[in-house]
Amino acid sequence: MYNKYKVWLWAAVIVLASCKNKKEETQAAVSAVDSTTVKAPEVLAYKVAGTLKHDTAAYTEGFELYGNKLYEGTGTFENSFISIADTSTGKIEKKFPLKDKSLYGEGISILNNQLFRLTYQNHIAYVYDLKDLTKPTGTFKWPYEGWGMTNDGKNLYVSVGSSFIYKLDPKSFAVIGQIQVTDDLGTVDNLNELEYVNGFIYVNKWQTTKILKVDVSTGHVVGTIDCFGLLSQYAPNYTPTSSDSVLNGVAWDKTHQLLYVTGKNWPLIFKLKLP
Questions:
Q1: Sign of CA dihedral 249, 84, 198, 142
Q2: What pLDDT, on a 0 to 100 scale, did the predictor assign at position 38?
């Protein structure tokens, strides 16, 4: 009888200890989640410092300021091209069309005197010598869709329309890292055109008026720029050509600390001054 009671008592102690441990583990897990909760993004104010003319035939996919020129990569099967425009007027100085109409141009990025260019669903990326954009000097295979592209001065970053941004080696186009973008509500998808600025990537979220400021080290959206109303205010007579005529195009002017933004088939490029 004593032995049975001793066994029962010992079992009860084990159960109570187990319950206590479970409770402590649960509390620890909750604390861990709380400590990593993503804060709601800050709404970033801006001022329009000026505007430039933009080619309404340009279905913008890639946008970059290099030197004192604006480089733009456009899409569609019928009208994919790369253009070079003057930053003081927006006037196009040179245009390089994709001659192969089976190719759909996407995001671009300039690194090491080369221009990299994605295609949408062709699973090919092209490399051009920046001095001659008439023909590519090389190609890379890409397993996903191509959307946006930027660089940090060393590596390339590519979006594919999901919540992921891939970090690539520019010499091999191999994936060497990835960032999953999140905000206080969870993962953020439909990431499109990209621009790297001082440890952050500014991202157009497809089919919205918002540009997201993403911390490269964490993937967290730390700020949002809402461009709603820009066209109606500065181009009231403009009629969008389609439902796809949306915000898409971000380029950073380091010299003047301005963010150049435009959209697909928009008539204007906006120079935004951030706080």
A1: positive
A2: 80
Q: Tokens standing for 236?
A: 């009231």
pLDDT of residue 19: 41
Task: Determine contact, residues 159/167, Cβ cutoff 8 Å.
Answer: no
Long-range own/partner contacts, residues 178-186 (CB < 8 A, 24 or more apart): 179/214, 179/216, 179/219, 180/219, 181/212, 181/214, 181/219, 181/220, 181/221, 182/38, 182/219, 182/220, 182/221, 183/38, 183/40, 183/41, 183/212, 183/220, 183/221, 184/37, 184/38, 184/39, 184/40, 184/41
The answer to whether 155 and 176 have CB atoms below 8 angstroms apart is: yes
How many whole angstroms separate alpha carbon 3 and alpha carbon 256?
A: 85
Q: Which residues have C-beta within 8 Å of that of residue 257, sequence separation ≥ 6? A: 273, 274
pTM: 0.86
Question: Does the pLDDT value for residue 204 go beyond 80?
Answer: yes
Question: Which tokens hold the place of 157?
Answer: 């970053």
Per residue in 88-107, pLDDT tens? 999 999 999 999 999 999 99
Beta bridge partners of 84: 71, 94
User: Token digits for 209?
Assistant: 């008026």
Query: Which residues, 6+ apart, have CB-to-CB distance to 234 below 8 Å?
Result: 48, 51, 268, 270
Distance CA(227)–CA(116), nearest Å, equals: 28
| Two structure tokens written together for 183 | 């905000």
Helix (H, G, I), strand (E, B) or coil at 226: strand
Distance of CA 28 to the CA centre of its chain: 35
Q: How far apart (Å, rounded) are the C-alpha atoms in residues 173 and 166? A: 10
A 10 A CB-CB count for 128 gives: 21
